[in-house]
Amino acid sequence: MLNASFRLDPAFTVAPVSRRIFGSFVEHMGRCVYTGIYEPDHPTADADGFRQDVLALTREMGVSLVRYPGGNFVSGYRWEDGIGPREQRPVRRDLAWHSLETNEFGLDEFMRWAGKAGVEVMYALNLGTRGVQEALDVHEYLNQPDRTHLAELRRSNGVDKPYGVKLFCLGNELDGPWQTGHKTAREYGRLAVETARALRTAEPDLQLVAVGSSSSSMPTFATWESEVLEETYDAVDYISAHAYYEPLNGDVASFLASGVDMDHFIDSVVATADSVGARLKSKKKIMVSFDEWNVWRQSDFQSGVTAVDSSEWPIAPRVIEDQYDVTDAVVVGSLLISLLRHSDRVTAACQAQLVNVIAPIRSEAGGPAWRQTIFHPFAITSRLARGQVLRVEPQGPVQETERFGEVPVVDAVATHDPETGEVSVFLVNRHLSEPVTLAVPLAGFELGTFAVTEAWTLTDSDLSATNTAEEPDRVVPVANSGVTVADGVLRLELPPVSWSAIRLTAQ
Ligand code: AHR
Quick one: CATH architecture of 18-384? Predict the structure, then answer.
């Protein structure tokens, strides 16, 4: 039996929990939009054609922010194709995913869906094939109250009041050679800063995200961030980060330690941004928008892209509909721990994507929608993480991994809401076979004043178990009745390969 411990103290705060880190992502890709959030013929569809079963799951998941409309898709997208009378909207080629885009669902539909889902919108602009003018046009359509051509066009399309979108991505993954309109860091930095300046002339208090590296393994990683921020530092608020994790060559121990890699990635982006800030003698801090992250078996997908003949391009095909298992859910829980731990610098994040495409929610055309395993740690973390993030330093066993060297077996983060007195703790045991007994002295809190009001553990004797349309609740978090607080110490056992969340309420 392994033992671990850490102290919880309300004085050791990192930063307030930013609700924006519980973001998700809707891209015009595969079946995320069509038969995902939108399916007019579905039995649950509302008058707008939105699937209410998917809307209900989106709300239950506690999604706060949704990035739209891409992704690689946005770098060839013409937003104006998706507004106005549907019968006049053109069908276009989507070069990113070798599909046909019907434009039946566009900007006004998405904004309406976002209103019903109760989420903030992060709108990604096309800086691949387009630039300053498109950014100004889409901003005018979204945010100009009236009197101008595009504001009046929106109003004639039935939307009287401006949408008031505040958060814009200045493109997507333009460091990647696969991206339509791929650029060097300097080329991108110049375009991004001019777009940002033009947008701020229209609306000074927008929050703008410059494109960072599409992964930390890109050959240009860090140089890209440095050069982009040298051009854009004063004009942007965020630099983006993207990361997808998977078990490579059956190496589950390294996969379970993906959070260590995410920690290192964030620290490297922050260090790079701060070094640019120091050289510019700026007091401003650039935040990280981790606007694509998840588990994705990407190596399976890359070998599957073969279609090149555009006469065969499908509409809304099944693309990367990864089925998630127990280990994937534990990894997603641990990535959320990493994001929360960095709340002083990561203040926006989007799990990619929301429905069907590497997604926590799955749906079938004309059929059911259900929660994948990875839905659960997201939903519980979003619900319980409140107030201030607390710094914790787990002491305990370590294990060797092939990809990341020696890593702690237990990872954890906590939050404390001074207004309600509630404390939430999020934990992962990465060991493949050993449980860990954990003791957490509640130092700095008044002794004996807490009761355990919720305790959940997600694990399974079959780590490959998944949720399916036939068995949608095969893997769910289970109430953990072994959690106690006595004499100012929280105690519990963490099963091997498990994720847990506990809520303590002041009595
Ligand atoms: O989320 C899937 C894809 O992954 C996005 O379109 C792209 O930005 C990233 O490479």
Answer: Alpha-Beta Barrel (3.20)
